[in-house]
Amino acid sequence: MTDDEVLNEFRAAGALLEGHFKLSSGRHSGHYLQCARVLMNAARAERLAAALVERMPQDLVSAIGAVVSPAMGGIIFGHEIGRALGKDAMFVERPTGTFELRRGFALAPGQKVLMVEDVVTTGLSSREAIAAIESAGGSVIGMASLIDRSAGQAVFDMPYFALLKMDFPTFPADDLPPDLAEIPLSKPGSRNA
């Protein structure tokens, strides 16, 4: 799947938004890729996950024992990656502010895990999810996301694969370009930043 084909999936779902958005990272942007909306169609989510798995090296794919995603945004895409890999998919959540496995999910000591996100902007929540997986006994051997919008700033100590890299500029709240500052703010994500 080419970058244009991925973007066409977002366009077809009405999930490529323009305006003034506050991202989960707290930064502001004139563009927003609404991953939940593009993934609401199960056939589309399956296509996108299969396309990402096809880009991953076979030695990594064959080593993966489970898929774990952070709630809320990563759950659907993580599940579809699990389906494409033929592996169980679990998620970590923040009931008290720190990611942890719950709901009877468990990893065997040293179990090799692919951590899957919907979108990566700064990589902070990804690193927190990786720490939780490792605290639960898993060994994170790779990371994947539907979208990497970090502009190369999110770096991990493991192989990282994204289906689409988008370099939409982001800005701190106190340093917005005048044209962006004039547009009413919207917060379409799942977390308050």
From TrEMBL:
Transmembrane segments: none
A Pfam short name: Pribosyltran
Residue ranges annotated for the Phosphoribosyltransferase domain, each copy included: 66-167
Coiled-coil segments on the chain, per record: none
EC number: 2.4.2.10
Ligand binding (orotate): 121, 149
Molecular function GO terms recorded: orotate phosphoribosyltransferase activity
InterPro entries, per database record: OPRT, Orotate_PRibTrfase_bac, PRTase-like, PRTase_dom
Catalytic activity line of the entry: orotidine 5'-phosphate + diphosphate = orotate + 5-phospho-alpha-D-ribose 1-diphosphate
Family membership noted in the UniProt record: Belongs to the purine/pyrimidine phosphoribosyltransferase family. PyrE subfamily.
NCBIfam families: pyrE_Therm
Name listed for the protein in its UniProt record: Orotate phosphoribosyltransferase
Originating organism: Croceicoccus esteveae
Taxonomic placement: Bacteria, Pseudomonadati, Pseudomonadota, Alphaproteobacteria, Sphingomonadales
The gene coding this protein: pyrE
